[in-house]
Amino acid sequence: xxxxxxxxxxxxxxxxxxxxxxxxxxxxxxxxxxxxxxxxxxxxxxxxxxxxxxxxxxxxxxxxxxxxxxxxxxxxxxxxxxxxxxxxxxxxxxxxxxxxxxxxxxxxxxxxxxxxxxxxxxxxxxxxxxxxxxxxxxxxxxxxxxxxxxxxxxxxxxxxxxxxxxxxxxxxxxxxxxxxxxxxxxxxxxxxxxxxxxxxxxxxxxxxxxxxxxxxxxxxxxxxxxxxxxxxxxxxxxxxxxxxxxxxxxxxxxxxxxxxxxxxxxxxxxxxxxxxxxxxxxxxxxxxxxxxxxxxxxxxxxxxxxxxxxxxxxxxxxxxxxxxxxxxxxxx
Length: 332
Description:
Transferase(Phosphotransferase), domain 1
């Protein structure tokens, strides 16, 4: 097979060739790019009319073992009859293909629309589907995936941002101090709590309404090991103190399938600041891509980092309020 030139400029004929050889399906010339920043995702069409989705993983982001753990988690969810889009088994017997340094997977195309919350029962439905994912997630461990902990994943994200030169030098001390304070006030709350395989990115954009199957869960790319509350707070429309009713309804649905440690609700605002830092590190992985620089020309500038530091400092105040405030601020 002809080698791919580079990840930013994969040629359509080479994509088709990779998918055709991996699946054994004769393909047409259709290659339609789909929205994806970190990876490269395309729609293909086999000559029998079957539509397929090819996901080409960004080199260096995930190891082979990490991607295989993503696929295994999806398959474990499928075994629990959770609506997901599972990778196809390729001709060589694995779900993971490889072409000249780039791993890829092929999925069936499934349609759905973003799930909309209209009534109270919809929040319960969201809680139920996340609980079922966590039932599957608790059946085995992920050995190579990120562990969501301020003293582990977040400090690592900050160190990598600084080491790779993405942070404007004048803002390095402030970012380091934010990380230090976050660990000092919140790390202890992450110790001795349940950690399981999580979806990791369970915002409502990744939850599709697909009648009659129900809520279909997509995009397990950011799966991780962490506290179950991570997959629940991402569903909320606002900060925790403004979402008491939504939290109560989600937990009603969740606890139909699985017990929930309500003391971990006080971690929501810590997890929010950790996600902001994670997102900064996520962006840095593609900061040199032409498309990313075109869409976000100010990313990494002095002005950009001044705004980010200000936002992180404000969020740190919320973290302190939730962890050190009155009991009624802690939601349990």
